[in-house]
């Protein structure tokens, strides 16, 4: 019995040595290759020696890079890989359209305002003096019958136009503030009469408190006499707006701004900027509606 066990042990030892030589280790590995992948399978020595199958978990399959039939990780346009777990922001087309529309409207608005401001500046520095049916002076503040420096500068320009013989009629405009004894129109008329303009040549519109209403009154006064061509006198910054209003009311209007206005420098530029904003809106909605909004 002892000799038989020794022989079996020798046979086991020889078989184990044979397996070790063929695999390189006592728990030798042999590879099975399938198209597109390589799988390593471990064969325990006990399986070889005993003939019993030992079930083990297969090693993970690692596909080779670029192997046919295996899709690479998804990559969006632009070559930036998508990383799992991170949010992906997708811009909606309608949002882009809204942004583009808003930007376009802003650009158009800025250009439109810039053009209007340039027109305010150029018209204020122009002079369209010519023979007309009537010279119209826009009202301004007066102090107990004495024209303010702003109104006086306008009236002095009217005197120059009158002396040039551009019209036989002068229309003075402007009402009064609560508590005033005189209207802007009456103070203007007295100033002109004192300097040689015949009283019968002066027509008064004395109920208005803003430029639009003044020109509505001027239109009524002139229509009674069949007149419609007017030469408007005011400050440079004010000239484009009153011409546009007069044209909107159906008058044939020209402007001749005063050159001696006390509004100069930075103050004049600020008033031009404000006028440009009002004119830009008035051209779109109408100056009568603009007056109802701004008062």
Short recap of the structure:
The protein has 9 helices and 9 strands. The protein is of the alpha/beta class and 295 residues long. The chain has a domain at 128-263: 3-Layer(aba) Sandwich (Rossmann fold), CATH 3.40.50.620.
Q: Please state the overall shape, judged from the principal axes of the Cα atoms.
A: elongated
Which series of helices and strands comes N to C?
HEEHHEEEHEHEHEHEHH
Instruction: Give the uncertain stretches in residue-range form.
Output: 24-43, 45-57
CATH topology of the domain at 128-263: Rossmann fold
Let me know the average pLDDT. Answer: 81
Q: Termini distance?
A: 128 Å
What oligomeric state do the depicted chains represent? single chain
Residues in helices, as a percent range: 40-55%
The CATH superfamily label of the domain at 128-263 reads HUPs
| CATH level 1 class label of the domain at 128-263 | Alpha Beta
The tally of helices reads 9
Main β-sheet description: 5 strands, parallel
Strand order of the largest sheet: 7-6-3-8-9
Rg (CA only): 49 Å
Beta strand count: 9
* Alpha-beta classification: alpha/beta
Could you say what the CATH architecture of the domain at 128-263 is? 3-Layer(aba) Sandwich
- Beta content comes to 5-15%
């Amino acid at each position: 019995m002892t000799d038989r066990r020794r022989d079996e042990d020798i046979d086991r030892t020889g078989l184990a040595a044979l397996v070790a030589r063929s695999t390189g280790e006592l728990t030798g590995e042999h590879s099975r290759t399938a198209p597109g992948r390589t799988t390593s399978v471990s064969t325990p020595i006990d399986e070889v020696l005993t003939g019993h199958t030992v079930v083990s978990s297969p090693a993970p399959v690692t596909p080779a890079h670029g192997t046919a039939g295996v899709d690479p990780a998804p990559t969006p346009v632009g070559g930036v890989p998508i990383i799992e777990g991170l949010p992906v922001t997708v811009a909606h087309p309608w949002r882009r359209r809204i942004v583009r529309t808003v930007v376009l409207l802003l650009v158009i608005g800025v250009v439109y305002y810039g053009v209007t401001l340039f027109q305010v500046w150029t018209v204020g520095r122009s002079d369209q003096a010519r023979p007309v049916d009537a010279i119209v002076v826009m009202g301004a503040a007066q102090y107990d019958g004495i024209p303010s420096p702003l109104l006086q500068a306008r009236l002095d320009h009217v005197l120059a136009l009158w002396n040039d013989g551009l019209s036989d009629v002068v229309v003075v405009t402007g009402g009064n503030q609560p508590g005033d004894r005189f209207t802007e129109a009456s103070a203007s008329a007295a100033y002109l009469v004192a300097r040689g303009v015949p009283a019968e040549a002066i027509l008064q519109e004395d109920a208005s408190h803003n430029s639009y209403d003044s020109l509505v009154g001027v239109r009524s006064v002139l229509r009674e006499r069949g007149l419609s061509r007017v030469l408007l006198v005011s400050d440079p910054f004010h000239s484009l707006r009153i011409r546009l209003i007069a044209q909107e009311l159906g008058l044939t209007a020209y402007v001749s701004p005063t050159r001696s206005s006390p509004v100069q420098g930075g103050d004049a530029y600020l008033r031009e900027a404000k006028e440009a904003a009002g004119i830009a809106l008035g051209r779109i909605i109408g100056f009568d509606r603009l007056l109802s909004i701004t008062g």
